[in-house]
Design goal:
The protein is about 40% helix and about 25% strand. The protein is α/β, with parallel strands linked by helices. The chain folds into 2 domains: about 1-140 and about 325-360, ATPase, nucleotide binding domain (Nucleotidyltransferase, domain 5), CATH 3.30.420; about 145-320, Nucleotidyltransferase, domain 5 (2-Layer Sandwich). It binds adenosine-5'-triphosphate and the ligand CC(=O)N[C@H]1[C@@H]2OC[C@@H](O2)[C@@H](O)[C@@H]1O[C@H](C)C(=O)O. Belongs to the anhydro-N-acetylmuramic acid kinase family.
Length: about 375
Amino acid sequence: MYYIGIMSGTSLDGVDAVLVNFSGSSFSLIDTCYVPYDPFLQAELLGLNQSGENELHRAALSGNRLSRLYAEAVVCLLEKAKVDSGGIVAIGCHGQTIRHCPQSEYMYSIQLVNGALLAELTDITVVTDFRNRDIAANGQGAPLVPAFHQQMFSHSDVHRLIINIGGIANITSLPVKNSVSGFDCGPGNMLMDAWCLQHTGERYDQNGLWAKSGKVIDYLLKDLLSFPYFSMPPPKSTGRETFDLNWLLSYLTGKEAAQDVQSTLLQLTVQTIADSIRAYYPTARELYLCGGGAHNETLVARLQQELQDREIRKTDVLGIDADWVEACAFAWLARQSIERTPGNLPAVTGATGRRVLGAIYPA
Ligand SMILES: Nc1ncnc2c1ncn2[C@@H]1O[C@H](COP(=O)(O)OP(=O)(O)OP(=O)(O)O)[C@@H](O)[C@H]1O
Ligand SMILES: CC(=O)N[C@H]1[C@@H]2OC[C@@H](O2)[C@@H](O)[C@@H]1O[C@H](C)C(=O)O
């Protein structure tokens, strides 16, 4: 029961791909492959988050480029694992989000990928477009990963929280008795990455050392935290439409030192995660981090400082490396689709019911 999961997230850094084996209820991660975006593709994808000239054509071309990269990642996995394409049941490919508008007046989410091309290039069944069925059922279409967290990380006696710190940060609550819940807390690394690139030329602030060299600007943090998204009740999900550099610039006076802004952005991520936990999951004591932000030592130390009575570890100790949880989730979501089993959790997304997700392109 080999599946491939492919995730390219809101950080816009590249492609995470995994080969996994599901047999019955057991799961194993067999191989992984990471393919970075070249600067041209990265800039093009970032540009497609806003309207621009000839954007339909550009989006279609980027979808094709992405699909060729996804196919490279598939070949890399098959070679590493010495498995041939006939041995794979399906590829679950998230695609690259360029717009996310689940609100009732819009009701769509766009993940770029040419599923037909990927099926043609790999000769493997491809499942894509995981979000729109949930949105059609009045859900947010995100986050979807909590259903996978439930399968992999639940404990019969302990209330656990799983916190993904990617471009956006999202939280999953796995209580002992009540139903699973979760939502997007707000920006994870996205704003820090953009500010860091603009001021240092580095794509991200390694271990948060630049942020650590600055001071949190109290008035700025207070202003940022007053943004309505943070106090909105779940279900909720967000993205680059809301949290981009322009959003940040609208709060700056122009007199702030760049490293102090970075320190404040890091604190914003920490604070919005900690506030969400205090507001919605006050009794949960075990926290497990995944996503790239789990490697940011300054961020993790400040989060531990905010939540001193909770134990914070990475999902690695639960059996899945923090870097590969999302890609594994899309392999699992593909299996749900292939088996015609629902993949969404209405308690998370707000959908009116459970739905079989995804569009299938047969091999
Ligand atoms: N050592 C590190 N120190 C600081 N930040 C790091 C480190 N390693 C990774 N990161 C951060 O993690 C980001 C990548 O995270 P990840 O791959 O989880 O995001 P994503 O999957 O694209 O986002 P999302 O989950 O929102 O879709 C990088 O852009 C960087 O900001
Ligand atoms: C629209 C979209 O791509 N959302 C992503 C993003 O990245 C993290 C967070 O925001 C989450 O809601 C979601 O991704 C994961 C994989 C999810 O659906 O659970």
